[in-house]
Amino acid sequence: MEQATSYELLNKIDSPKDLRHLPADLLPEVCKELREMIIDELSRNPGHFGSSLGVIELTVALHYVFNTPYDRIVWDVGHQAYGHKILTGRRDRFCTNRKLNGLCPFPSPAESEYDTFTCGHASNSISAALGMAVAASRKGEDDRHVVAIIGDGSMSGGLAFEGLNNASSTPNNLLIILNDNNMAIDRSVGGMKQYLLNLQTSEGYNRLRFAIAQKLRKIGILTEERQKSLLRFNNSLKSVLTQQQNIFEGMNIRYFGPVNGHDVLSLTKVLKEIKDMKGPKLLHIHTVKGKGFKPAEKEATLWHAPGKFNKETGERIIPDTTGMPPLFQDVFGNTLLELARQNKKIIGVTPAMPTGCSMNILMKAMPDRAFDVGIAEGHAVTFSGGMAKEGLQPFCNIYSSFMQRAYDNIIHDIAIQRLNVVLCLDRAGLVGEDGPTHHGIFDLAYLRPIPNLTIASPYDEHELRKLMYTAQLPDQGPFAIRYPRGRGTQTDWECPFEAIEVGKGRKLKDGSDLAVITIGPIGNDAAQAITESEAHTGKSIAHYDLRFLKPLDEAMLHEIGKRFHRIVTVEDGILKGGMGSAILEFMSDNGYTPVVKRLGIPDRFIPHGPVEALHAICGIDKTTIYNTLIHLLEV
């Protein structure tokens, strides 16, 4: 990207070392230019917008005070890190952000030494940073600082509390920065949100306590052995004086704040004062998501990832979708509301993504019938299990890649008891520009071994509605439905509800020379490839929609095994352990010996980029399917 001449300071910062050479009084101008650059670039090259604008001052202060990359900065939920990328040698490449072969959408250690840890999912920063702090201590690197930045609702995740608990009992000098903006992607919910809003701490008290502690150490009274006991006493005294309990200091973690997260000079001052303090400590800052761009400040959820927009007027540039099929997400949301009106037992559950998965449709119409539990996927599943145990019918909607975090909960709290929970796996398959941390490619493989679990994937919107209807019928047990991000193929999606026999696939097209087996919407691409292959070769190809990965339609597979010597399987999931593997196992177990060519996601992490390009990279695009069919038909 050609840099604008107005970025007089930013254009001279090729690394944080350059930033640290500036006098402190220029930092507000650096923040101004950094914010303007992000607004300018994202207006044309869409990405995560509001989160990065909210931490501009924090980002500048951190790289100004700490000796990065030797000092470790660990981001939580990396959509906050655009300013960090620009300041750490990637300014001129920021225009490639989220593009195929361009900058990664989230911090990636493979991309830069300043990106200390992978952070596409929430709540892992404290645990990772604590590990780094302990490692630094064991290696004798006592001058290395480690900072974890957690916010955007991540503190509601259970892993964050596990990290806090360990940090309170393990010798370390970790600094945790709590970026409190009262937001996740949608508004934060739960008791932690209210606690952070109410938390107040006296800065004068902190200064006094620090001064007293220094004197006590000098005269030998405050030893390491006595420090924790005295800290607990001080925390109790502070609770009495401030008339509130501080959860962090209750865990023996020094607490500072709250402070204004948009005052870069105050932030640098505070960070300098506390960075060399011994023991774990937490700095609580208040920020505004979307800071510096008024439309984003007013509607933070809408401006989390707004797409292209006019940076002068704030008007979002929304493509004309007239006549196009709806998003699978909107079909889910409207269908769930329709079913909830018919079935009083239905409850909606989502972990902090009601807008993204369209659970907000049910929330708006029936606010007492839907729950946003915060960024807590494991809890969402077990919470759903508890309701199902008492006779309700939860629809628990979690993005496929995030459902990985609830794997034990699915087994232990749902499947063993065969509870009637519908697990809706949104964003299944390759999701595009969010990259490997968000691709939903493992669900078919990781769910398939679980007993008592039905696994289905709809071919189109009609099938999604029918599967949702089927899943809420009495005594279906755990029922997983996976579907992709984006649009389907049916403009007339509002078909009547109809029960589908569980474990029953469909023959979409008969044929005699070769069989193609697909599962889910990728079958539409296969159907086009089949039509073109038949036109080219004059051969006849059968197409089967498996529908259910578990239980398998054994009658249909016996038919295929008996009739065909050549089979192609196509799935938008990982090949190892997925649908193709299930077909091979069935054929082997039943004595069939066809040649089976499996198309799916290879055994590697797939980068970010447009879905169509990623399909081609993985060999599940229409052209590759076509070429595969041609080759097998000509053998």
UniProtKB/TrEMBL annotation:
Co-factor binding details: Binds 1 Mg(2+) ion per subunit.
GO molecular function ontology, one term from the record: 1-deoxy-D-xylulose-5-phosphate synthase activity
Transmembrane stretches, start-end: none
Positions contributing to thiamine diphosphate binding: H79, G120, H121, A122, G153, S154, N181, F293, E377
EC number assigned by the record: 2.2.1.7
Role this protein plays: Catalyzes the acyloin condensation reaction between C atoms 2 and 3 of pyruvate and glyceraldehyde 3-phosphate to yield 1-deoxy-D-xylulose-5-phosphate (DXP).
Family of this protein: Belongs to the transketolase family. DXPS subfamily.
Record text on subunit structure and interactions: Homodimer.
The name this protein goes by in its record: 1-deoxy-D-xylulose-5-phosphate synthase
Naturally occurring in which organism (per UniProt): Bacteroides gallinaceum
